[in-house]
Amino acid sequence: MTLTQLTQPTRHWRRPVALLLTGQALSLIGSSIVQYAIVWHLVMRTDSGIAMTVIMLCAALPQAVVSLFGGVWADRWSRKLLIMLPDGIIAVVTVALSLFIAHGADALVLFFVVLAIRSAGAGVQTPAVQSFIPDITPEDRLLRVNSINGTIQSVNMIAAPALAAVLVNLVPLWAILYVDVTTASIGIVFVALIRAAKMAPTSARSVVGEMRAGLRYAWRFPRIRAVLVSYTAVCFINIAPMNLTMLLMNRGFQGQSLDLGFTVLHTASDKLAANEMAWSLGMVLGGALLATVGARVFHDNMALLAASFLAMGACTVALGLAPTLLAYLIVDFLIGVGTALGSSPTYTLLQQETASDMQGRVFGLLTTFSGFGTPLGMLVFGPLAEVMDVQTIFVVGGVLTIPLGVWLWRLNRRVPASP
To answer: Is 2 among the domain residues?
Structure first.
């Protein structure tokens, strides 16, 4: 029996999909709250572009490295177990960090180590989740399920910064960390309830060979190769500078308040939360459009990705030119819409055009390439933020993103979908 036959989705797919998406949503919101709380704590404590670069390296580089192995493991081991295990390890590490902080240990290196471990866990979990979705979902429902998944995550990202902002102002950091421990435990239970076919394990000696096979496979197909290359480039020139939005909010709009009617953005944590929420609201709208109308109307995933890059480029330029906090938040919302229009179609394209027993490695490569692109970009743009206006960095990053959308659009017209 082949791997494809072992993992072919049954007609009773809605329950396992609901369990997976719910479990991941619960795990994500707890992780996001804690991640925001830790990063904001470090940003307000240091107010340094170099510190932001170190934070980004710790939060992204381990995931990029581990994803190379995580992709192989997802193709040969239990994807269900690989989804649950990182949550358990991260929960233990988070408890340890809380105990250290509660007893007065708050050295920066301690936070950096914990961020790195959390990142490494994501390197195992991310390719496992993305390759597990087509195992339990019919192919004609993949775009809709991916879009629903993206929408749920975006809703969580709206709630997470808002809750983090409240908790940061009311609760000590060590206590906030237990939110992640609780939600991770619940998420593990949900995923454990999914019945999934077992996969044959591989020997440790074959891992490097499997990674090479995955790279050769991905590079053989122009469309898969183009997604990997373009994602890496966008992470370097666009996503990396976007991580400086916290510095832009902290520097460019310091002392400026914004009355939204239902609330007033006054403190630094309020503005940082609004920054994340504006982008997340855009992600929700874009994901909801794809999950409802888009899943029935749009069938060209590569074209959607190209349009997303064009929109992200134009909006990033506008973000750097925004004269007021209100204008900034509006553009940030539009960037979220553009990002959602590209993320779900990208996952769907790779799931549909990649063989089942190669999906873990391809998604591992996607995570690795994009994961390296972001910290490498921060190594360039983080130090630049110390010697030049952050707004200029956004303008440059946006301008350089637009040609990538044009390239994908032309490639999509010349190269048919991979079998």
So the answer is: no
Q: Cα separation of 114 and 107, whole Å?
A: 12
Give the residues across from 258 on adjacent strands. Answer: 265
Phi/psi of residue 34, each to 5°?
Answer: -70, -40
User: Who's near 293: CB < 8 A, 6+ residues apart?
Assistant: none
pLDDT tens readout for residues 11-37: 577 888 888 888 888 888 888 888 888
Give the residue numbers spanning the domain of 132: 11-192+206-414
CA atoms within 13 A on the CB side of 155: 12
Helices 14-46 + 79-102 axis angle, to 10 = 30
CA distances from 279 to 13, 307, 329, 333 (A): 31, 18, 8, 5
Q: Is residue 23 within 8 Å of 128, Cβ to Cβ?
A: no
Give the Cα separation of 325 and 328 in Å (integer).
5
**Cβ-Cβ contacts under 8 Å for 127 (sequence gap 6 or more):** 67, 70, 71, 74, 360, 361, 363, 364, 366, 367
Quote the CA–CA distance of 92 and 110 in Å, as a whole number: 15
Residue 403, phi then psi, degrees to nearest 5:
-60, -30
CATH of the domain at 241: 1.20.1250.20
Residue 311 neighbours by CB under 8 Å, 6+ apart: 334, 335, 337, 338, 341, 405
Residue 175 in tokens: 């206590």
Query: How far is Cα 409 from Cα 304, in angstroms, rounded to an integer?
Result: 9
Q: Is 359 part of any domain? A: yes
For residue 201, tell me if it sits in a domain.
Answer: no
Q: Identify which of 134, 384, 385, 119 has the alpha carbon closest to the alpha carbon of residue 248.
A: 385
Digit-coded pLDDT (tens) for 171-222: 888 888 888 899 888 889 998 888 766 555 544 446 677 777 888 888 888 8
In 64-194 the beta strands, taken as DSSP E runs, fall at none
Confidence of residue 295 (pLDDT cuts 50, 70, 90): low
Helix ranges, 103-141 (H): 108-136
Total of domains in the chain = 1
How crowded is residue 140: how many other Cβ atoms within 10 Å of its Cβ? 9
Side chain identity, residue 63: Q
Residue whose token pair is 């809703």: 155
CA–CA distance, 112 with 114 (Å, rounded to integer):
6
CB distance 108 to 50 below 8 Å: no
C-alpha–C-alpha distance, residues 260 and 282, integer Å: 17
